[in-house]
Amino acid sequence: MDSDKYPPEDGRRRFVKGVVGTATLTSVGTAASGALNAATSAAGGTGGPTSYVGIENTAGPAPRGMPLVPLTIDDEGYLKGIWPEVKEKELKDGSTLTITEQEIGGVTYTGRWFQYCGVQIAEGVRPDADQDNFLRSKPGLYEWQADHEQGQKLHVDDFADYEEWSNGIGSVGAGKAAQTTWRSQSDDDEDVKQLPVQVLRSPKVSDLPEESENADFLRAATESDFVAWLDKCTHFCCTPGFNASQDASKFNATDAVYCQCHQSVYDPFSPVELSFNAFPRPE
Ligand code: FES
Fold this sequence. Notes:
Elements (H helix, E strand, L loop, with lengths): L8 H4 L15 H14 L6 E12 L6 E2 L3 E3 L5 E3 L4 E5 L5 E5 L1 E3 L2 E3 L25 E3 L38 E7 L12 E7 L13 H7 L4 E5 L10 E2 L14 E3 L4 E15 L5
Antiparallel strand pairs: 1-2, 1-15, 3-4, 5-6, 7-8, 9-10, 10-11, 11-12, 13-14, 14-15
């Protein structure tokens, strides 16, 4: 392993540029704790009011941003999403519930962030699902992934040209995106509801935490100019793309994430604190 190429945790965090409004950031910890209490006491036990950090919805009918997937890079340079710690939560009636919860940079990160648009029934959102968390290539949306095997692990070297890359849709050097699946491997792929995740490597990612009250979270959730989010449009659950559609420029969505279904636009360089009512998992 080249330690300069895949720097360790302490050496990789860089600068931050914030975009999060102060009004949205008050009582983050309190809100998250409240969400946990509500979720564990609600019918179904595993959904409920949930605070999260997502990429901002800036135009179109989508009601809110798409949740970030905190990521890391392993010692061999492969990209991995971070899955929150699995815990047993004791309920008021004395029974226990398996949950996912982890403090990351002052933000409570849970698997409930992803429980919408049918993802709540995916095997991968079960807290202790047998998954390895690597971000795995899903060719189709981006031509550059055409020579990938479906499901191969994405590597830092796949993005080595990100500072000069363009597919003719966005600006040169705006960033290189990939379509992936996360926590979606199975012996029988046909039966797995996948977690689609888009990953982007852009020089602008290292600026995200600057002036943000979520700076510590954003430093921990991004690495080496990579950021990732669950790619499920919060409007009607299509899979948008960063510089993936020639139509994006018609809707002021160049160098942004554009949903071709009904023209929603998301800004991957504007992480914001949001909340929603997560669906419970079926169990
Ligand atoms: S804008 Fe409707 S599904 Fe994305």
